[in-house]
Amino acid sequence: MIEIENVSKTFTLHNQGGTVIHVMKGASVSVASGECVALTGASGAGKSTLMRMIYGNYRAASGRILVGGVDVSCAAPREIIALRRTVLGYVSQFLRVVPRVPTLDVVAEPLRAVGVSAQEAEVRATELLRQLNIPETLWGLSPTTFSGGEQQRVNIARGFAYPYPALLLDEPTASLDAHNREVVLSLIEDAKARGAAIVGIFHDEAARDRICDRVIDVTGFTPARAA
Amino acid sequence: MTPLLSVQDLSKMYGGHIGCKDVSFDLYPGEVMGIVGESGSGKSTLLNCMAGHLVPDAGQVVFDTRAEGPQDTVTMSEPERRMLGRTDWAFVHQHARDGLRMGVSAGGNVGERLMAVGARHYGDIRATATDWLERVEIDAGRIDDRPTTFSGGMQQRLQIARNLVTGPRLVFMDEPTGGLDVSVQARLLDLLRGLVRDMGLSAVIVTHDLAVVRLLADRLMVMKSGHVVEQGLTDQVLDDPQHGYTQLLVSSVLQV
Amino acid sequence: MTENAYNFAYLDEQTKRMIRRAILKGLAIPGYQVPFASREMPMPYGWGTGGVQVSAAVLTPEDRFKVIDQGADDTTNAVSIRSFFQRTAGVATTTHTQEATVIQTRHRIPEEPLNEGQILVYQVPIPEPLRFLEPRETETRKMHALEEYGLMHVKLYEDIARHGHIATAYAYPVKVEGRYVMDPSPIPKFDNPKMSGNAAIQLFGAGREQRIYALPPYTQVVSLDFEDHPFEASKADHPCGLCGADDSYLDEVIVDDAGGRMFVCSDTDFCDARQSAGFKGKDAA
User: Fold this and answer.
1) ipTM
2) Domain membership of residue A30 as a residue range
3) When you count CB atoms within 10 A of the terminal residue's CB, does the N or C end of chain A come out lower?
4) In-domain check, residue A194
5) Is the Cβ of B113 closer than 8 Å to some Cβ of chain C?
6) Active site includes C117?
7) Domains by residue range for chain B, with CATH
8) Which chain A residues touch B214 with a CB distance below 8 Å?
9) Which residues contact C97 (CB under 8 A, 6 or more apart)?
10) Average model confidence (pLDDT) for chain B?
11) Which N-terminal residues, if any, form the signal peptide (chain B) (predicted)?
């Protein structure tokens, strides 16, 4: 489902003397449907960078990144948008929403975007918010004012609203209590069971061990630093 | 799939000064494209050339018309272009006063485009206007009030209703949230997102506000001195800018 | 010297020629506003300088001239213009609609139907019907050229929204032969139907605005309206107090300090003719 072949990444800082920073080289990862792969490595090793490249958020310098048959590294914006709508989901650590939109609508939006009726989307959003223990009194409010943990759960609900066949998870269990952590882990397990290909970053080792089939240390893709 | 709008090598000079130069892109149905750049970068010139408000010196603006398929709107006859301007195209001005008739009631403002395409039943026109006022969250009780009595945010929403009432397929927006309070901006952004989604609109939005494009636009084009220096997926351009100017632009945004 | 110091009908022949060209163009394109080089006239703008120039351009020594102001032959404006042409053209004058060959009018169309060979000259203050909503002349001319008349209905929409019905009572916009939208000058909308299919030539002159437009005989003129608010040629719902006519346009006249009033025909010639024929209204002496 997700095929990463010989991908490299550089950042060119045009406003700082044109400094070129090589952050990744020769990255190759393959994730099949129903498989969950964890990316590991020290902070700054490039876990998030790789995730962002898969999502099309960062542009790869070379190599191929196939997600559901689409090469994200060279696809047109509209192809990536279509991919993100129906194939590739992403639960980031940060919630980015239009300020005054109610939580319920935030969670329902991915479904509305693919043409699901407002009513049907709301049913699914309600179900997820309830599962993730977001108090009903908050549903009508914008999540921008919520606590970190609540925002994280809204983000997860939003990421799981649509049954994407490929999922990227960036620290999905960070800042969650034991109970909610359990809910999230079972959501991930359900996604795996229905055949989703998952790439994740988990600092929570117990969670990683429970969910992931394989672990890939991205340190192997880090180019040797020039002295 | 046929692009809804295909711009090819569009150029406009102001004497020896470049307005915009060799701009090309395709916009597909349902896509929202943002154009960013500093004042004087040519983004408004480009928008006005596309919308037929300015005559470009060179290039094509091919629109996929309902009746006859792709047509170059630069060379089509003026009546045809103006007809597009009040049916399939919409233009939202930065200043609502430029896009509204301030001496005409809210209902008349919304109804004008309907009457322009032949609506002659007062009751139907009024019902449609009422419906649209509600869609842009203006109390239907204000239908007979003039826009001069509206707040800035309401005027802008009225302008949007007036533009969208004929179900256009392409909306040009020039700094639609400029000059509005931040809280009013958010409400307008949410409204626009909903309308774009529900009506399947395509839009070209000119702004210098990067936060606005991040929330509204699927794609982004960055302009500097009349040239397009970078374009791509909005979040990719903002999070991993390739061109020096874009890097400068992104890093210049004040954090709150 | 004094006898020949003035040209026939005041204007010099070159000016008349220019105005006649504009009139002919106007007749060829019914309802289209033709610009013309309006001259200074020996009266202020607003007193009918446009109408006077058109009349001067069409008058011939054989003509019989009638002037009405709000339907009346005997108001200051009517009397002044009539005597102006008496002096400068020496033409015969009349107050009888049937006898006149050229009738200059402000704000009315005579009640009696006009015939072929007659010319009705309207004094026009603002020839542009779209100006109310679109002040830019460049834009309104383009709108006429491209037949973009939606805005005209916005004006009528505003009327209904504000008053519950189309409250425009005079200068009610019309469409000529399905093409140009035209301001009929400030005649009451009661007179609008008389413009359509009229046997006479109708000429419109706006002096200050420098526009002439025209309706050739038997031109179709339709008043704009909405399907659910159709045009109505309304008048005060009374018979004439002097002649008893119930089908003529009426003026309301306050007759004492106690609020007493009467309604009388605004067309004085029409009313006089009826009274001479023995018709009597309830207020007739």
Assistant:
1) 0.88
2) 1-85+203-227
3) C
4) no
5) yes
6) no
7) 5-96+171-253 (3.40.50.300)
8) 96
9) C66, C103, C110, C111, C112, C114, C267, C269, C270
10) 93
11) none
